[in-house]
Specification:
294 residues; seven-stranded mixed β-sheet; 8 helices; 22% strand; binds zinc ion
Length: 294
């Protein structure tokens, strides 16, 4: 099995660090990039301002870090759209998406809605798959996308574009976190978004994917299958520790990414163990850090 090719390689996407701070993606949506770039957040977190022009209202999706400069940038977009914030939606509980949810919700006097009560807060709304939000002159359909985290949601817009949070990133691939994440759920969630036939993917980090969103989702599925293949091939040469597997499989990626890679690796091993193809194998069961083929 060869490594799958990323279809975005031939697209003209802005390079890392060159994403415009504010961009109108379609009449319904303006993206505001938060000033929190890092190895894990890429260019920074994307906050989306969603609402029908002329409705006088807007919904924020993933407010991001509680940063005064970011809030000022979001308020400038709201002013330009002549809209007030009527709801704050959050894709998942990670701080780079959710930190500002409660403070900004109270700042705007707007309720918070998310997949977990922890993020929605007291007085907030916990969303479920299939919920349809009618706000700001438009509708947003809630799509459960567990995998990266257990509470992860995506939001499908009337235009057919899907706000995908960290389910799909504008560059590279996402992480299935461990122990919270779940590879089987993640693969199902990728297929679920693929089956929506999205016109665009608006990602939690990195550029929006408009050229062929289905091809990116297909690549993500192939990428996870390839990682699984690499793990089984490595274990075919003998038992190994998780750190050794990461060092071998992720030899080509910067070491700064290895801790995240180790999480995806452990999550993938959990799937293979559940399928009976691999077993944890250590001197001490509690220190289950070595694996071998079943
Ligand atoms: Zn994130």
């Amino acid at each position: 099995m060869d490594a799958p090719a990323d279809p975005r390689a031939s697209w003209s996407l802005p390079a890392l660090g060159e994403l415009p701070r504010t961009a109108e993606l379609e009449p319904l949506v303006t993206r505001v990039l938060a000033p929190n770039p890092s190895g894990m957040t890429l260019d920074g977190t994307n906050t989306y301002v969603v609402g029908a022009p002329g409705s006088g209202q807007a919904v924020l999706v993933d407010p991001g870090p509680d940063d005064p400069a970011h809030l000022a940038a979001v308020e400038a977009v709201l002013a330009a759209r002549d809209a007030r914030c009527v709801a704050v939606l959050v894709t998942h509980h990670h701080g780079d998406h959710a930190e500002a949810a409660l403070p900004w919700g109270s700042h705007f006097g707007a309720p918070v809605a998310a997949g977990s009560a922890q993020v929605a807060g007291p007085g907030g709304r916990v969303l479920d798959h299939g919920d349809r939000l009618r706000q700001a002159g438009t509708t947003l359909d809630v799509v459960a996308t567990p995998g990266h985290t257990s509470d992860h949601l995506a939001f499908r817009l009337e235009s057919g574009a899907v706000l995908v949070g960290d389910h799909v990133l504008g560059r590279g691939t996402s992480v299935v976190t461990h122990p919270e994440g779940d590879v089987v759920a993640y693969l199902e969630s990728l297929r679920r978004v693929h089956d929506l036939g999205p016109s665009a993917l608006y990602c939690g980090h990195g550029p929006e994917l408009t050229e062929d969103p289905g091809a990116v989702l297909g690549y993500y599925l192939a990428h996870r299958a390839y990682r699984e293949h690499q793990l089984l091939a490595a274990l075919g040469r003998g038992p190994a520790g998780v750190d050794d597997l990461v060092a071998e499989i992720y030899a080509q990626v910067p070491r700064a990414v290895w801790p995240a890679a180790a999480q995806s690796t452990r999550a993938t091993l959990d799937k293979l163990v559940a399928e009976g193809r691999v077993v944890w194998w250590g001197a001490d069961e509690s220190d289950a850090d070595r694996v071998r083929l079943a």
